[in-house]
Design brief:
alpha/beta, Rossmann fold, two-stranded antiparallel sheet, 8 helices, 8 strands, about 35% helix, globular
Length: about 300
Amino acid sequence: MSHPAANLRPAVFLDRDGTLMEEVHYCADPALVRLFPGTAAALRRLTQRGFLCVIITNQSGIGRGLLTEAQYHAVQAELLRQLGTQEEEEDQELRNSGGEEKSGNQETRKENEREFREQVRSQMEFGNEETQGKEDQEIRNSGGEKPEEVRPESERNSGEPEGFEENSRGLSEATPPEPGARAPHPKGVADSSLIAASYFCPDAPPTPSPRRKPEPGMVWEAARDLGIDLARSWFVGDKAADIQCGARAGTRTILVQTGYGAQTAVQSLDPAPDFIVKDIAAAVDVIVQNSDAIRP
């Protein structure tokens, strides 16, 4: 689906494990999901300012046979449930303290959220092909996995899949798909009032994949599906792959020091993140303060 340039919206692409929730190596159990405090409030600040929040996450545990897609989706559902619970608790605190979220405004907010979800769904392109009833036609959301060392360009696999080219940063990236072209994997869907869509990649190394971070395939899919202006968008994560993915897609990047972020922050990253902050709340502070600056 082609979106007129005037209708493009900025987005914040978010890694999941280690960024929104505590790091769990190949998380397959919803009971292990622990959302970072203040995450819902941070994401709400973004949506209130017109940003779409999109989860972009690797899930190579599926490809490695360490968990199933059903287990992944159960973990993702718990993350969204906790986001909703955290949001309601924050609203209740505001009501108890006489804050802006008065009980009389709650239904209006919920109606706005429903309208937002419908707007996102209407923008999604699902194509005309039949799904054939396969589970792998569901959205590719992602989970947390141990970060892998990013190899120097000279050591990269020369047999990269078709569609890769060098960009101005000297990084190999997937060429953005043409408007209307069908993505190689299913699209994300509207998940909640805070998360517009989620994409995950089950592909496991060493098989080359244009979707697996640090490659930007999932970001290109989201940009086409949702009408996203990448020049005004951001990528937030705790791993080197997140920073590289955002840079290759043309977004600004923020490294959070939760999850593996503290270890990543002391590495010599190429490219370096635009900002290094404490957590997701601090990342949103940076985004709000710099939302008018557009990367050339």
